[in-house]
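Hey,
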Amino acid sequence: MKATPQSIPDVLLIEPRVFGDARGFFFESFNQQQFNAAVGGDWTFVQDNHSRSSRGVLRGLHYQIQQAQGKLVRVVVGEVLDVAVDIRRSSPTFGRWVSARLSAENQCQLWVPPGFAHGFVVLSEVAEFLYKTTDYYAPAHERCIAWNDVDLAIDWQLSGLEPALSAKDQQGVALAQASCFD
């Protein structure tokens, strides 16, 4: 696998080594030893999640203020724009965001370490999104930053489309009012 630091260096684009021919393709979607060597550290994943969404669905920006989750995310059907926002106050990149297009076609993954808010928007007709987490879902600690926070000014590449949001995501707060990590 190839791990490429993004404009926020702690967030890494992971490109698997794909073996393909006329029959199709094969790749290791996850290898614990290679992952830990590529990203640094000794990460363990405890939960796998799978969501399916249609074009324009925007999920995020989510995080857990306690039991913070690192996420390794990928798309197996369709395409999304995946976004990570650094919400670690002591970080030199606090309040900055990075995005990557993840698709079934490019087979890339994004490593979003603990200390980041995370979200994605579906760019294709439908997308199936998979992610591994380093800690369990803890609804009491879940928080949401507004997807359209004017200070963040995230380019969701919506091309004028109004995103479809859950009731929870409609209640997201501005980063300035959000609980953040030290």
